[in-house]
Amino acid sequence: MFVTSAYAQTAPAATDPHAAPAGEAHTETGAAHGGGVFPPFDATHFSSQLLWLVITFGLFYLLMKKVIVPRVGGILEHRHDRIAQDLDEAARLKAEADAAVETYEKELAAARSKGHKIAETAREAAKTKAAADRTAIEAELAGKLAAAETRIGEIKAKAFAEVGQIAEDTATAIVDQLIGAKASGDDIKAAVAAAKTEA
Amino acid sequence: MANDPIHQFQISKIVPIQIGGIDFSFTNASLFMVATVACAAGFLYFATSQRGLIPGRAQSVAEMSYEFIAGMLREGAGSSGMKFFPLVFSLFMFVLTANLLGMFPYFYTITSQIIVTFALALLVIGTVIVYGFYKHGLHFLQLFVPSGIPGLLIPLVVAIEVISFLSRPISLSVRLFANMLAGHITLKVFAGFVASLGTMGALGVGGAVLPLIMTVALTGLEFLVAFLQAYVFAVLTCMYLNDAIHPGGH
């Protein structure tokens, strides 16, 4: 019983806003309800339901077909194109980078072999030059050595030749000092010669 | 029952209109048809108005629903079915928005009206029949004669196929209508228990907790049903359209 009264209090409040502008409509609804027809099967409202469904759904369909579907389709297609384009661009840039790396490596290899060649040539040239210099210097040194030896020989021979004279002079001087008399040159010469032979 | 759960389906006139003796009044149902269209179209329109390359949240939802239906239609009816995309998309968005709007308390659920769902189902079947005959002529009738059936069985199979074809608009409309109607009645009944038990003193308030939990759980379930029925309606539309496009491919 509580249930009934609680519903009875809330029910008019719920229907009131709709019923208020159309007083005569309320009575009709009440009559239909009073007839005990289950509202979804109440055929009296079918015509208005259908009309408004056709109007609203028709409008909705047109709006979807003319505006929303092309727009969303356009957005998706644009994004798809943009992604494909970006991927293409990326692929192109990658190919470019690969080509650049290849060129770089080729050039690097070429430069390296060229450098190698230059170093080789330089080393070869330096080696030859060093060898040539050495032979030249050796030859010069040998010449100088030979000249020096010749000179030494000359000096030696000359010295040997002068030894007798010096010995004689020295002997004369010594004798002069020792005995205070001049020895004859021939004696001294003979003595020196004797000493020479003894030596 | 005293706590009338049927009352929510009652139609009341807002602006009475009579044309040629037929009632075309603007009713609360009409109001919610307009609201459904305004919500769905308004959302899709403003969500996509930026046309962002990187979508925002709203635009993502709009794009997802577009791609969801596009994938469904392509899978169900092939790429030649894409010419029906605006129709299937409109049907899905309309039914989904109507179902979800019906989840608001005191809002009218237009998909709980058999005439509305039946009209939408007839639109689908009508499209199938008109397009089928337009595209294939009498070959469209191959739909009722599956290939590889022994000659003796053909009359029987054709009879079954014709009956199944004719029952399609009924099953399509009744499924949506009955789901929405039953769900809302159940919700109302359990919510009514909460209210009536609540007036019966301390014990009643304690006892009202159970139907309250049930109401909360049912509300969640009803949101699922609201989406699921819109999805089922769209999937079946795609399947039926597939028959119109490929009547022989049974």
Strand proportion of chain B:
under 5%
Number of H/I helices of chain A:
4
| Alpha-beta classification of chain A | mainly alpha
Oligomer: heterodimer
GO molecular function (chain A): proton-transporting ATP synthase activity, rotational mechanism; proton-transporting ATPase activity, rotational mechanism
Subcellular location (chain A): Cell inner membrane; Cell membrane
Family (chain A): Belongs to the ATPase B chain family.
Membrane topology (chain A): Single-pass membrane protein
Structural notes for this entry:
The complex is a heterodimer of chains A (199) and B (250). Chain A has 199 residues and is mainly alpha-helical. Chain A has a domain at 157-198. In chain A, 89% of the residues lie in helices and 0% in strands. Chain A is built from four helices and no strands. In chain A, α3 (46-179) crosses α4 (185-198). The longest helix of chain A has 134 residues, at 46-179. The N and C termini of chain A lie far apart (174 Å). With 250 residues, chain B is mostly helical. Chain B has one domain. Chain B has six helices and four strands, in the order ββββαααααα. In chain B, the strands form two sheets. A two-stranded antiparallel ribbon of chain B has the order 1-4. In chain B, strands 2-3 form a two-stranded antiparallel ribbon. In chain B, β2 (18-19) and β3 form a beta hairpin. Chain B is globular and about 75 Å long. The mean pLDDT of chain B is 89. Classes of the chains: A mainly alpha (199), B mainly alpha (250).
Structure described in brief:
Chain B: It comes from Neorhizobium galegae (Rhizobium galegae). The complex is a heterodimer of chains A (199) and B (250). Chain A has 199 residues and is mainly α.
